[in-house]
Amino acid sequence: MAFLKRSPWILHYDASSCNGCDIEVLACLTPLYDVERFGIINTGNPKHADILLITGGINELNRAVVRNLYEQMPEPKVVIAIGACAATGGIFRECYNIVGGIDKVIPVDVYVPGCPARPEQIIDGVVAALGILEEKREKMAGGAQMKEEARHAEEAGEST
Amino acid sequence: MNGIIGAVLFLILAPIAGGLIAGIDRKLTARMQGRVGPPLLQPFYDVGKLFEKENVVVVTAQNFYVVAYLVFIALSGALFFAGGDLLLIVFAFTLAHVFLVLGAYAVHSPYSHIGAERELIQVMAYEPMIILAAVGLYMVSGSFYVADIAATTAPAILYLPGVFLGLAVILTIKLRKSPFDISTSHHAHQEIVKGITTEFSGSTLGQIEIAHWYENVFLLGLVYLFFAWNPVIGVVAVAVTYVAEVFIDNVTARVRWQAALKSGWLAALLGIANLAILSYMMIGGA
Q: Which UniProt keywords apply (chain A) (predicted)?
């Protein structure tokens, strides 16, 4: 059963964004857009999250934080880079302290362009991410099954 | 025999009823905030998803404690619907929460520890009142057995209005609703991440959620006992109480733990005053 698509919990992190995109992310949760209609909850805990919504171009100080947050999220998980800075570093790209895009530090699944990205676009990005999330879940379930079968085959081989 | 049927029905139906109540709760909350809200079955989707996710375990003991929490919550609810001893139920219920606290303490995470400490404070805040509720129901019906209390013809609510109001206050604590959602809350992530459930993920978090459904059904059953002389009024009263709790959740902000503790004990004082007047009247009448 695909419950994952019906209940994507979000972790929102500001990796040195100007706060423009963050306001738009939070706007998605307001009564006007109400993403809870789709079962989306903004959780503050990476261990409960399925989707990492991340804004900004990452600086040298929060590089480790981003890495840590990503690693703490249980599989299956997807990352959505929101805004121009998250995609490429945007107007801050040339700054001495900016890493220049989320994908320099962690793998990104969906890019939402814009400066700032509009709430409709962000919701679009999340919907696209749900497809990827489902794909990853199937792969994970398949992987676990293959592992199990290999183990059984090995045990059978040992017993004969 | 009736008792066993009641317990089995509770174990099977309570998660379904609890999930639906949680769904209605979320829908109602959304409407109060001018939103459309999630589908009615959303809590089931959430728990189903949690069982699909990877289970990240920091310390293996933590999952054991959560299983114990689920078992003892289910046990106390089953005893209740089997018509068992209310005092035993209250103690099994408290023990369940002690296991949850131990689970949160098993992990070396400051947020988990803050959540565990606040949960302990909550236990301290509601425990006196919940025992007084049992004592009050005993004074009216002459028995600690739920089966006898439910069968009594005296309208318990008319004898115990103070106890019921006190119970309503600690019900807010137990249902994890504002202003007393201090140990874990979806809205408190700026201060305590997820508090007591921070370090639980995947199926373990799903078990906590199911335990919470069991707990809610049990608590609403406790509310029903005050109106047990008339089942129709009882069901209406339970519904009204729950909607009132959702309303309070939406119009209040989270208080500090000191205020939560004081409120719980003030509620207990109200309960004691009620019981004192009641026992005075009973002695006077005899």
A: 4Fe-4S, Iron, Iron-sulfur, Metal-binding
